[in-house]
């Protein structure tokens, strides 16, 4: 399962983890993705949405 939001296309980002001794190793930040039922064009559909889109109201959830 890819960590990508179907609404805003937010996906994982890469960077360096920096230790106290300044040793750098690669690391990954993943968005908080939830599988939710949402209304897409009036029909309920299961999509993957980040919690930022859920909280801001960009998605109308199907009940």
Essential attributes:
63 residues, mainly beta, two-stranded antiparallel ribbon, two-stranded antiparallel sheet, 1 helix, 4 strands, elongated
Task: Detail the topology: elements first, then pairings.
Blueprint: E1 13-18, E2 24-29, E3 33-40, E4 43-50, H1 51-56
Antiparallel strand pairs: 1-2, 3-4
How far apart the termini lie comes to 24 Å
- Secondary-structure-based class equals mainly beta
Cross-sheet strand order for the largest sheet: 1-2
Name the poorly predicted regions. Answer: none
- The average pLDDT score comes to 95
Evaluate the radius of gyration: 16 Å
- Quaternary assembly: single chain
Characterize the main sheet. 2 strands, antiparallel
Contiguous helical run count: 1
Gross geometry = elongated
Number of strands: 4
What is the H-and-E element order? EEEEH
The helical percent reads under 10%
Report the sheet-strand fraction: 35-45%
GO molecular function, one term: structural constituent of ribosome
Protein name: Large ribosomal subunit protein bL28
Keywords: Ribonucleoprotein, Ribosomal protein
Family: Belongs to the bacterial ribosomal protein bL28 family.
